[in-house]
Amino acid sequence: MKHYPRPEPCEQPPLFHPPYCASLRRAPRKPLIRLPHTLSELTGPLYGHNPIGETDNDLTRQHPGEPLGERIIVAGRVVDEDGRAIPNTLVELWQSNAAGRYRHHADDHRAPLDPNFTGAGRTITDDNGNYRFLTIKPGPYPWRNHSNAWRPAHIHFSLFGPCFITRLITQMYFPDDPLMPFDPISQSIPDEGARRRLVSRLDLNLTEPEWAIGYRFDLVLRGRDATPFEGQS
Ligand SMILES: [Fe+2]
Asked: How many Å apart are CA 121 and CA 144, to the nearest integer?
């Protein structure tokens, strides 16, 4: 039976990180018991009950009007540790709007919702592992983790491979965000180089003139250059 390698904890965020207050409640206090993967985990459930829609990767065209804010292109490749493309992977993202507000019942930040922006998208990587989204640059938002706590602008990412246990979740940040050093979530990753791999880079080749700035964000599933993912340590 095939299996999926477990990640090494060295460059992954720890489950227990006291400055990130939610981890005090969520993190297990005892060592995890590793169970063998069974047939059900290795074979299902598969994603794909609903086909990808035409505007699923264009968050600016999901409503009758255009959303407010800075239009951006976010694109990159999903690759393995040797840089080989991972095709046919479901890439999902979710994010706040330009004012830093999520369209979610639990978000009570006093910032306006945008009637033309949901903040969720998905796409499938092509044969070369490429994905691409058109969206609005998210705003920073307060989150009450500590006094005067603000999350740097970020986009949540989920990757789905061929079965349920291959789901990976992470967050993408923007270059030179002054809030990053004060963010307990991104700073929970011990290795500075690994933290940098969560920061997208401005890419003028991706940027479309008179239209939208492009940010490149590649996702490396494992190995020395692996992207830090949540809940992997
Ligand atoms: Fe968020």
From this structure: 27
∠ CA 135-54-162, nearest 5°, is 90
Which candidate, 85, 230, 97, places its Cα nearest to that of 169? Answer: 230
Q: What CATH number is associated with residue 204?
A: 2.60.130.10
Residues designated catalytic: 102, 141, 151, 154, 156
Burial 134-143 (b: 16+ CB within 10 A, else e): bbbbbbbbeb
The total of other beta-carbon atoms located within 10 Å of residue 91's CB is 21
Q: Is 98 within a domain?
A: yes
Distance in Å, CA 38 to ligand 1 centroid: 32
Determine the structural domain holding residue 116 and report its residue range.
9-221
Tokens of 218: 């590649």
28-86 pLDDT, tens per residue?
Answer: 989 888 888 888 777 766 666 578 899 999 999 999 999 999 999 999 999 998 999 99
